[in-house]
Design brief:
Blueprint lengths: L4 H36 L5 H31 L9 H25 L13 H34 L11
Protein name: MARVEL domain-containing protein
Subcellular location: Membrane
InterPro entries: Marvel (IPR008253)
């Protein structure tokens, strides 16, 4: 049997750092767009404006809570804590996955799958980048969620249940 604990100890900080970095990129893009929309009122539609605001919220949620979970994992992964349990990680990642799915799908629908910058000049590159990074963030969170589901199955098999730790 393969011991996955060392992979989790190495992989958790890497995956959560990627989630945080992509979230910061989304905060920068969506925050700048929200600022421009509030100042100049030159958004493509109210749909794009509102979905950009939602992406800003989702990005802030993701960065703040991912930093929290990363710090907790480093601090108490060996001692164990309710907040570093499979259930806690799974709940956070599932909610974040749903938020990102809604954000990425809604901005994709609002932009009709992306903008042709030869036709749209106002913030075209930023909107396309925001859409792309929303899907990248969704995929990254989905990967983390799948790993946590598998670790939850392993924790249940060893008798710890979902309150068991990611690392045995």
């Amino acid at each position: 049997m393969v011991d996955y604990d060392k992979h989790i100890r190495r992989g958790h900080p890497i995956v959560f750092t990627l989630i945080i970095v992509f979230g910061i990129i989304e905060i920068a893009i969506s925050g700048w767009l929200v600022g421009m929309y509030n100042r100049h009122h030159n958004y493509l539609s109210t749909s794009v404006r509102d979905r950009t605001r939602y992406i800003l919220f989702t990005s802030a949620w993701t960065v703040f809570l991912s930093l929290f979970y990363l710090a907790l994992f480093w601090h108490s992964s060996s001692a164990g804590s309710v907040l570093t349990s499979v259930l806690s990680h799974g709940t956070f990642l599932f909610m974040t996955w749903v938020f990102w799915l809604a954000a990425a799908a809604s901005i994709t629908a609002a932009l009709s799958g992306g903008l042709d910058c030869s036709l749209h000049y106002v913030y075209c590159g930023q909107l396309n980048a925001m859409e792309a990074f929303a899907w990248i963030e969704w995929v990254t969170v989905m990967f983390a969620l799948v790993v946590v589901v598998f670790r939850g199955i392993a924790a249940s098999r060893r008798g710890d249940g979902l309150r068991g730790q990611l690392v045995a």
